Amino acid sequence: MSEKPLHFMPTEGFRERSKAVVENEFLQKSFRAAMDFLMTKRAAQFPDADELESLRRLGERIRQNSLDKLPALLTQLETNLTRNGIHVHWAENADQANAIILDICKKHGAKRMVKGKSMVSEEIEFNHAAEAAGVEAIETDMGEYILQLAGEKPSHIIMPAIHKTKQQIAKLFAEQIPGVAYTEDVDALIQIGRTVLRQKFLEADIGLSGVNFAVAETGTLCLVENEGNGRLSTTAPRVHVAITGIEKVVEKLEHVPPLFSLLTRSATGQAVTTYFNMISKPRQPGEKDGPEEVHLVLLDNGRTQPYADEELRKTLQCIRCGACMNHCPVYTHIGGHAYGTTYPGPIGEIISPHLMGLEATATLPSASSLCGACGEVCPVKIPIPDLLVRLRSEINSKPGSGSPLQGQGAGYSRLMTAVWRGWAAIYANPAFYRLYSWLVSRFNWLTPAGQGGWTSVRTPLRPAPKRLRDLLAERE
After folding, report:
1. Which of 92, 285, 432, 443 has its CA 20 to 30 A from that of 263?
2. For the chain, what are the domain ranges?
3. What is the pLDDT of residues 232-248, one digit of tens each?
4. How far is residue 154's CA from residue 161's CA, in Å, rounded to a whole number?
5. pTM for the whole structure
6. Rounded to whole angstroms, how far apart are CA atoms 407 and 437?
7. What does each C-alpha distance from 24 to 17, 19, 253, 455 come to in angstroms?
């Protein structure tokens, strides 16, 4: 495995990273082709606009119902999981979650772990904690495995290695996997990865997975996947540990099918995925497979912050389909790594500030044109543009103004506040506006050549020498 550091990048470098990607012609073509492909596949799965809108409304109601009842549903989930023989753990932050999982590893003397795809494990940077504790944690999702070899983080929540070419993967396998010759044959590369990972499944002491939906009514953990690595990670080792955010709970089993339909069709343009795993118990007497012990780690890590606010709570409706990324003109140009966070794109811009604080993510809510594409395609109707505007306001408002958000006021500037108040006063008073417009038209030669971000890619804005009212007066 690569020993390159994978920790979160500072979002202060967001502009520089974005610029580098935009200037990379190869990446531009790759991202554009990939996003066009995914958008086309999604559109083909929703030929009936009325059916799509009806399903989106249903998905929204299911997720809002779950969040409205979240404390009670989490209690119910714990009760039913415990009754089913699954151990439930609560983690307030990433350090606690890592400690819980590593304690389970220590208890069982586990030194080798296989991991199914889990964005939450990326969020808590579990692989670093495991390495420090002497536990080998191997990613078994093919995309995640490729990135682990490369020492990189996922650039998309559904297709983590979407930025990689077959040539890059071929070179990576030849360099990192002993005895492997360079080949650009995609089927051969897949078989190489599978051969390595199948051996890891046989050797693993413990398996880790994420959770797509946790059903409170039955105490069931649902996992959606295509490769079968999730099923192997949760059944081949003697111990299975699942980790998820507290928002993934749903009230009833009947609420899962509509969300599953929205998830698969919105994410990869599939009617259904290859595998849908439902885990309710460890291996029972007489059964031939399955783990002997199952654990679930329920993680907060900042999620109760948006939950406490009626508007921001809608952020937690997300089912992690990635559709907002696929349709976002900003993400399409800069990819996921530019954001410097686990969750990139529009959903990352509204959830990362709660997970990491507004100080560390102050630039992200502004990385949007507010075109509304993300909100239009969100399968559970999260009003992402509205939430972006709210976060921008929180970032630039005066610190200590009563908001509960961590890091509120991180971008506050007395000068900018004074400028905007002056602008509001001028445009709210007709007399002030007439005087202002007369002055700027007559003295437009004083307009500065440098106008911040605007003139980095555009010519300076310069007022016309005559106002519209002056032109109309001359005509009359």
Report:
1. 92
2. 11-34+41-304, 418-475
3. 999 999 999 999 999 99
4. 6
5. 0.91
6. 38
7. 11, 9, 46, 21
